[in-house]
């Protein structure tokens, strides 16, 4: 696998750089390798102290896609698969929804403000116990074309998964991060991102904090409109 990644990266870097249109493209597919992250669990639930479990490393992979349907509307979807090194915890995150964008920058370095309303789902295993929940998310962010080749994308999301497995426990929280996109040419791009997700499950007996921190993502993007 490492050989394939090396060959792909070499091929992309060897592609002739072209003068790119200085604007954000919302029609693409992207694959990410979640190289590393730190998971932490803490709290008191069902009258059982969980305590600080320490930081367990995790890794995984993800996919993301976006389609521009009008000059200001787009559809976005994403899937992440995460496995924690403790062997008793793993998570699958799925989202999809409708986004609205508007240009607020100048022509030299365009800046887009965007917002997305999504359906959100999480399916996983935590300390050996399976669980699932689904709800909604609201994301706001910026896409800044710092140069024809480099785009910077900070964002923040509110996630509300509702009740876990039809129980009385509600799961919600925040996700925030920043992505960098280096456009190798007008079709291919290399991506790198930093992300943190902070979730809380709470019912009348107590609450558990689940933090997925210092997540580093590396990947590639293919623009479909070129």
From TrEMBL:
Keyword match Signal: yes
Signal peptide extent: 1-21
Key words, A-Z: Signal
Origin superkingdom: Bacteria
Record's protein name: Outer membrane protein beta-barrel domain-containing protein
């Amino acid at each position: 696998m490492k050989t394939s990644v090396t060959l792909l990266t070499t091929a992309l870097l060897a592609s002739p750089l072209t003068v790119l249109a200085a604007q954000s493209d919302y029609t693409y597919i992207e694959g990410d390798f979640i190289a590393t992250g730190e998971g932490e669990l803490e709290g008191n639930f069902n009258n059982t102290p969980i305590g600080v479990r320490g930081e367990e490393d995790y890794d995984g992979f993800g996919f993301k896609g976006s389609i521009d349907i009008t000059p200001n509307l787009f559809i976005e979807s994403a899937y992440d698969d995460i496995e924690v090194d403790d062997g008793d915890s793993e998570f699958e995150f799925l989202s999809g929804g409708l986004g609205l964008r508007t240009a607020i920058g100048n022509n030299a370095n365009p800046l887009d403000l965007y917002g997305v309303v999504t359906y959100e789902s999480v399916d996983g295993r935590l300390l050996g116990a399976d669980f699932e929940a689904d709800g909604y998310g609201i994301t706001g962010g910026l896409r800044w074309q710092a140069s024809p080749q480099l785009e910077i994308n900070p964002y923040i999301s509110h996630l509300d998964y509702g009740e876990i497995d039809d129980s009385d426990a509600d799961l919600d929280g925040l996700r925030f991060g920043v992505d960098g996109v280096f456009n190798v040419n007008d079709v291919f791009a290399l991506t790198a991102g930093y992300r943190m997700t902070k979730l809380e499950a709470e019912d009348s007996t107590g609450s558990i904090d689940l933090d997925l921190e210092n997540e580093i993502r590396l990947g590639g993007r293919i623009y479909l409109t070129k």
